[in-house]
Amino acid sequence: MANTLIHENRRLRFPLDTLVDALIELEDKQGHWPSKATVVGATIDHETTTDNDRVILSIHRADSDKVIERRYSLAMIAAAIVNYCVTLRVPLPRNSTKSIQVLPDGVALVLENTLILQCRHEELSTLPAGSVPPPAHAAAAAVRAPPDAASPPASPPPPASAPTGTAEAPPPPAPPAPDAPAAAAADAPGPT
Q1: Residue 112: CB partners within 8 Å, gap ≥ 6?
Q2: pLDDT, tens digit, for every residue of 113-169?
Q3: Would you call 147 helix, strand, or coil by DSSP?
């Protein structure tokens, strides 16, 4: 059987403040973040033509009372974002293709993945759906069969009601006709 595909495309958007947290998290985990350092400024460089120095952090170091700059390439940003997602348990498909997009106010991690599944049908026709007439057995089922002769007769319709205000009592039913021999015997003269 043939295969079928599912294409997945996700964008995880990181505003600048979240991106700064992700960079600090990775630098601290690697042992490169200065102790007692405070970020006092952050900028995304949109003018650069290379992937280097895309994010610039201004860091105040309390031990030396200086402000230094740290610059991060797109590769470092991508590593920081993936690490941040793993730390916070944001699901990332393992086999997905990952790329970074620089936005005006942050970055986005783009995840693209293709799943290959076994197809449950034959190759689809090029005919548009609905253009094929229904099978003969479906058309025969649509025609109603005549009513069955053994079915009970329909009950008679209820009598029409008289107009309001003119109702009269229906006449009493006629008594049954007596049998002819019994009636003749009753009319015959009795013995005298």
Answers
A1: 7, 8, 9, 96, 97, 99
A2: 888 888 877 776 676 777 777 777 655 555 555 555 555 555 555 555 545 544 555
A3: coil
Residue 8 and residue 6: Cα distance in Å, rounded?
Answer: 7
With H, G, I as helix, E, B as strand and everything else as coil, classify residue 139.
helix
- pTM: predicted TM-score of the whole model, two decimal places: 0.58
The CA distance from 159 to 172, in Å, is 16
187 contacts: CB under 8 Å, gap ≥ 6? none
DSSP state of 22: H
Angle at 9 between CA 8 and CA 12, to 5 degrees: 130
**46 near 72, Cβ under 8 Å?**
no
Residues 6+ apart with CB under 8 A from 84: 18, 21, 22, 25, 26, 90
Domain extents for the chain?
A: 3-118
pLDDT in tens, 42-82: 998 888 767 777 899 999 987 888 888 999 999 999 999 99
Give the integer Cα–Cα distance in Å for 135 and 9: 41
Rounded Cα–Cα distance for residues 78 and 72 (Å): 10
Structure tokens at 110: 């783009």
Cβ atoms within 10 A of the Cβ of 176, count?
6
130: left (phi over 0), alpha (psi -120 to 50) or beta: left
State the first-to-last Cα distance of the chain, in angstroms, to the nearest integer: 112
